[in-house]
Write a structure and sequence with these properties.
With about 425 residues, the protein is of the alpha+beta class. The chain has helices at about 45-65, 70, 80-95, 200-220, 235-240, 275-280, 285-300, 310-320, 330, 335-340, 360-380, 380-395, 400-410, 415-425, and strands at about 5-10, 10-15, 20, 25-30, 40, 100-110, 125, 130-135, 145-150, 150-155, 160-165, 180-185, 190-195, 225-230, 255, 260, 265-270, 270-275. The chain folds into 3 domains: about 1-30 and about 180-295, Glutaredoxin (3-Layer(aba) Sandwich); about 40-170, Nuclear Transport Factor 2, Chain: A, CATH 3.10.450; about 305-428, no CATH class. The protein contains 14 helices and 18 strands. It has a 7-stranded mixed β-sheet, with helices on both faces. The protein has a 4-stranded antiparallel β-sheet with strand order 5-6-8-9, covered by helices on one side. Strands 7-10-11 form a 3-stranded antiparallel β-sheet, covered by helices on one side. α4 (about 200-220) crosses α7 (about 285-300) and α11 (about 360-380) crosses α12 (about 380-395). It starts with a strand and ends with a helix.
Length: about 425
């Protein structure tokens, strides 16, 4: 179902630039929530449902056939000039997007009233729940599904779309709502960018195949191995993609998804979103680390439950991100190195609260997480690290991590920490 957007990210200390780029911790949020209670529709609305469903079918068909006149014919001729202009721009911006499917679903069982000032005596207005479903060609195995806050108006015997901002239900926005879209292709995916970010988009597209291959080499082939990367052009666009809970000015990248089906180990609507303001400053090595980190979240999403210990979630993504990078351990984990130099190695695995962006331990927590997953891989084998991730991330959050540790690598947390401390002393 649409409406649930899962977000996952990590923090990377990009010491090659001397810059701390913070990416928020994993979270789940419901993005389609109505502050006012909905009005339940009556069975008498069948005629409206049929008419609006037909309207949206014609709208979707026009998008897929690149029929501008047909698309604009679905827009209320009496709509505001701002909405009409936005609809024209939306259609034009979609021209550069490789869509495989585009459709809408109407749910007349939930209807909202227009916000104040929208109702008019001479026009019948109706706002059933509407969901957009679309697939990017070669990327999405199942459609991404998004909530649309559509308000429809009947003039004479015809229905039109008259607004997408007149309800308490928010309308999801895609890259095409914010400007002209250029698609850059790689064998392993797509980069959707706006003209101003074209240079960064080309860098990402040139990286994508190697980065997908690098993640697959560690994680295995049990993921689609294709991804779409979005390069927003403004803070508002970035916030629309990743959610208001992220400190969007400080992030470098976030991996998002619409929904996760753990039974089938799959997710829909997976995208990697870069913040161009920060990402364009990255060196080639740093950009590679960021992309591989986020692609690891994409690959592992289907087996990762909410509440997974952050040291495993982000440590594993950092392990894949930095694996084979040639970046020195003391460059990646300088805070841990200082602890070792002082003779005070970490005494426990970092807690989830240590990864909070508002906390003072976030930098150290990520470095500790990376070093402990590196220790596991080097001591017990990379395959064991992958199996441990799957065991820990796939368990109910209340389950014992010790159980997974003993089952996969034969040690409990206390033994893991002791081995990790010794490893850090020798390594750093």
């Amino acid at each position: 179902m649409g409406g649930v957007r899962v977000r996952s990210a990590g923090m990377l200390v990009l010491s090659l630039l001397g810059v701390l780029v913070v990416l928020g911790p994993t979270s789940t949020a419901v993005v389609d929530s109505d502050p006012a209670p909905p009005v339940r529709a009556s069975p008498e609305q069948d005629g409206r449902t049929t008419a609006v469903t037909d309207l949206l079918h014609r709208r979707a068909d026009a998008i897929l056939r690149h029929d501008r006149a047909g698309f604009l014919a679905t827009v209320d001729p009496a709509a505001t000039a701002q909405f009409a202009a936005a609809q024209r721009a939306l259609f034009d911006n979609l021209a550069g997007v490789p869509l495989a499917t585009w459709s809408y679903r109407v749910d007349p069982s939930t209807v909202l009233s227009p916000l104040g000032g929208q109702a008019r005596d001479d026009v019948e207005l109706w706002a059933p729940a509407v969901e957009l479903a679309y697939t990017l060609d070669g990327i999405d195995g199942a459609p991404a599904t998004e909530p649309m806050g559509y308000l429809f108006a009947k003039r004479g015997d015809r229905w039109y779309l008259t607004s997408d901002t007149g309800l308490s239900r928010q309308t999801w926005r895609g890259p095409w709502d914010f400007g002209s879209v250029t698609t850059l292709r790689a064998a392993s995916g797509l980069v959707l960018t706006h003209p101003r970010n074209l240079a960064l988009g080309r860098r990402v597209a040139a990286e994508l195949d190697d980065d997908v291959a690098a993640v697959t080499a560690v994680w295995g082939r049990q993921w689609p191995q294709r991804v779409a990367v979005l390069l927003p052009d403004s803070t508002d666009e970035l916030r629309a993609f990743v959610g208001a809970e992220f400190a969007v000015q400080t992030i470098a990248a976030v991996a998002v998804a619409d929904s996760v089906d753990h039974d089938n180990r799959s997710a829909t609507g997976q995208r990697v979103v870069l913040n161009p303001n920060n990402a364009r400053k990255l060196s080639a090595a740093s950009l590679r680390v960021v992309l591989r980190h986020e692609l690891t979240h994409v690959a592992a999403r289907g087996v990762t439950v909410d509440g997974t210990p952050m040291w495993m979630l982000e440590g594993f993504a950092d392990y894949v991100g930095y694996y084979g990078s040639g970046i020195a351990a003391t460059t990646v984990a300088p805070e841990v190195a200082r602890l070792i130099d002082a003779g005070t190695p970490p005494r426990s695995l970092p807690a989830n609260s240590d990864f909070a962006a508002s906390g003072g331990r976030i930098e150290l927590a990520y470095q500790e997480a990376w070093t402990v997953t590196s220790y596991i891989a080097e001591t017990f084998g990379q395959d064991a690290l992958v199996r441990l991730y799957q065991a820990v991330a796939g368990e109910d959050p209340s389950a014992s991590v010790d159980k997974a540790l003993v089952s996969v690598i034969g040690v409990d947390q206390a033994e893991l920490v002791r081995g990790w401390q010794k490893y850090l002393t020798q390594w750093l």
